[in-house]
Amino acid sequence: MSNKNLTHLDKDGGVRMVDVGDKPDTPRKAVVQSQVRLSAETFRLLQDKALPKGDVLVTAKIAGIMAAKETSRLIPMCQPVFLSYVEVRFYPDEVASIIIVEAEAVTTSSTGVEMEALVAAQTASMTIYDMCKAVQKDIIIDNCRLIHKSGGRSGVYEAPAK
Hints:
Layout (H helix, E strand, L loop, with lengths): L25 E12 L2 H8 L8 H13 L2 H4 L10 E9 L4 E12 L4 H19 L7 E11 L6 E2 L4
Antiparallel strand pairs: 1-3, 1-4, 2-3, 4-5
């Protein structure tokens, strides 16, 4: 692949921020899912709001939303985006002792919000880890992936079902 096909490299191979100034503002949305795997006991404590650090999912939701708003400060070549909506949802799976974390970011902009949704989902997942680590050290965060993207030139993307 030549450097002209890589948008974050200049003609000499140096890194650069992509110029999105000529792209039209369009509605854009991204949804990302991640999973936090807990032991059955930790999962029960989380559900019962009995962990020593407090209400895990409320704290994780706030952390994910706050993180989405800071994405361009964390990812070097990421454009600052005005977010019109960010949501973090949790889907507890009691049988598997998994918390499915889903983050959604929405904007009307000249660039997408996949990175904002990724940062929100991962930060919410890490916050769950942080809030539970006092009772379990072997928590696993995995399966982080884009499940939906819409807007922009590339149109709609729906991840295949797993």
